[in-house]
Amino acid sequence: MSVIVTDASFDAQATLPQPRARIGLIIPAVNRVLEREFNHFAPPGLGIHVTRAQIAGKWRSKSLAELADEITKTTSTLAECDPDIIVYHCTSSSMKEGPNGERRILQMMRTVTGIEVLSTSALVGEALRALGLKSVVLIAPYMSNADIIAYLRAIGVEVVHDIALGLRAEEFANVTPQRWFELAKENDREEADGIFLSCTATRQIEAIATIEAALDKPVVNSNQAVLWGCVKRLQGRLGPLAPIPALGRLMRQLN
Q: How far apart, in whole angstroms, are the C-alpha atoms of residue 172 and residue 135?
């Protein structure tokens, strides 16, 4: 019995569009929210590629020297899909040993790829400067905010008040956007220029617009800052961007 094959007629609307620019993200293995958030909030034309690394949660106690092999291995792995930018995307890990530690992370990454490399900590600092924030209320799910406070102080940002929820890494994603909103509203301080919601493995990004509307202050979140920083660098390839009001005032800095 013979099978007759006719020319296929493809529906252009049913085929997946090719990305105009692409980013690679090295994220903590325990992170359960990142892919969903980035694919939801990223502008059309931006491809998202992710590799997991054992850099947070139960591995958080490792020093930067002990993480060197993990960092270079995951950078090399991501480089094989040829993204335009690779980001070491973990706030606590990239801030843990201060700006000098952050620079060492980026240098490790540069040794294995010619692709532009960035870190969450550097992009958070860039976002805070873009919004003119010199003092913040810091809200995070961590056991302690000490490393984050020290890093922010080193880059000239004062933490006037902080809340650390004392959660285990696998619990971070369980905190609802409504709860992040409540925490920001309850802990805002008049002397704070804005709010910094620290962590890549939470649903904080979903609360940004609501917090800004309630407090009339800018909000920076780790995932939002990284998405903004990458889009800013790739804007020439992505073309004109529609507003993303859910991501707050920071995204307005693109235009």
A: 25
Does the pLDDT at position 3 exceed 60? no
The CATH-assigned architecture of domain 124-221 is 3-Layer(aba) Sandwich (3.40)
- For 103, the token pair is 């620079």
* Euclidean distance between CA atoms 228 and 34, whole angstroms: 15
Q: Please report how many Cα atoms fall inside a 13 Å half-sphere around the Cα of residue 108, on the Cβ side.
A: 22
CATH fold group of domain 21-120+223-241: Rossmann fold (3.40.50)
DSSP 228: H
Predicted TM-score (pTM) above 0.90: yes
Instruction: Please answer whether residues 47 and 70 qualify as being in contact, where contact means their C-beta atoms are separated by less than 8 angstroms.
Output: no
Question: Which ranges in the chain are annotated with CATH 3.40.50.12500?
Answer: 21-120+223-241
Query: At residue 140, does pLDDT exceed 80?
Result: yes
Q: Summarize the confidence of residues 44-72 as an average pLDDT.
A: 84
Is the per-residue pLDDT at 61 higher than 70? Answer: no
